[in-house]
Write a structure and sequence with these properties.
252 residues; Metallo-beta-lactamase, Chain A; seven-stranded mixed sheet; 23% helix; binds zinc ion
Length: 252
């Protein structure tokens, strides 16, 4: 609408590292801020630490969207549950993720804080592991789902908030769906875990450089990566891959 000021979306990179915190980077966790609303994409063991360092109010991060169930993407959830159930005594924590999310997250909570009555504090929404568009996950957020090749439940998402779109691969090996996921988005967030591609369930630096020209998002940011790969990406800046570090925010 003419004259309407569209809301800025802030994408906070609370953690940009791999499963092993190589070179000191926190586990991958991305917090999307839109007006008064906050949603995390993935929540690894360092989830709360990353938010503390960025002064993101954890109490407001009441939605977590999961790309898959590996520990470096979900193991921070029990701590956020304790925040909601014991410290803040605030309304429910919503966990949204691929089919099987509820069972896996309850197993995780029962293994770590079995004495906590989690039922009143948790709400789940599961998404089919298929390619599907415009699935509402909350009042102002819709996602398109793109199955990825990593674990059997892995989903990449195009997240739509108003007229802004953020695509994220989660963990995956390179595949032909990624250019479709990234097409024409305001921000694309792609994993780049290894230098070489052999024997990996991840995207390598060499693949990212080889296929960069097929990824038509306005900004492409690489995460789930180590210092050596970051240095190579910065050196080869003509490839237009943005290297994001822990604590950075991209405004779209
Ligand atoms: Zn993984």
């Amino acid at each position: 609408m003419a004259g309407e000021i569209m809301e800025e979306i802030k994408v906070h990179f609370a953690g940009t590292g791999n499963a092993f915190n190589h070179d000191g980077y926190l586990n991958q966790s991305i917090i999307i801020e839109s007006g008064e609303h906050y949603m995390a994409v993935d929540a690894g063991p360092t989830f709360l630490l990353g938010m503390e360092r960025m002064k993101i109010p954890a109490i407001k991060v009441n939605q977590i969207l999961l790309t898959h169930f590996h520990g470096d993407h979900v193991a921070g959830i029990p701590f956020q549950l304790i925040n909601f159930a014991v410290i803040y005594k605030m309304p429910k924590l919503r966990i949204i993720g691929p089919a099987g999310t509820e069972k896996r997250i309850i197993q995780l909570i029962e293994a770590t804080y079995p004495e906590v009555d989690y039922v009143p504090w948790l709400e789940f929404k599961e998404l089919e592991i298929i390619r599907k568009d415009t699935i509402p996950i909350s009042d102002d957020i819709m996602v398109d789902t793109y199955p990825m090749l990593h674990s059997r439940e892995s989903l990449g998402y195009n997240i739509s908030i108003g007229d802004k779109q953020i695509a994220i691969t989660g963990d995956t090996r390179w595949n032909a769906t990624i250019p479709l996921l990234m097409d024409n988005r305001d921000l694309g967030i792609i994993e780049c875990t290894t230098m070489e591609k052999e024997g990996s369930d991840h995207i390598s630096f060499h693949e990212l450089i080889e296929y960069r020209h097929r990824l038509h998002c306005k900004t492409l940011a690489a995460v789930h990566t180590n210092a050596a790969i970051r240095n190579e990406l910065k050196t080869l800046h003509t490839h237009h891959v943005k290297v994001v570090n822990d604590g950075e925010t991209i405004v779209i």
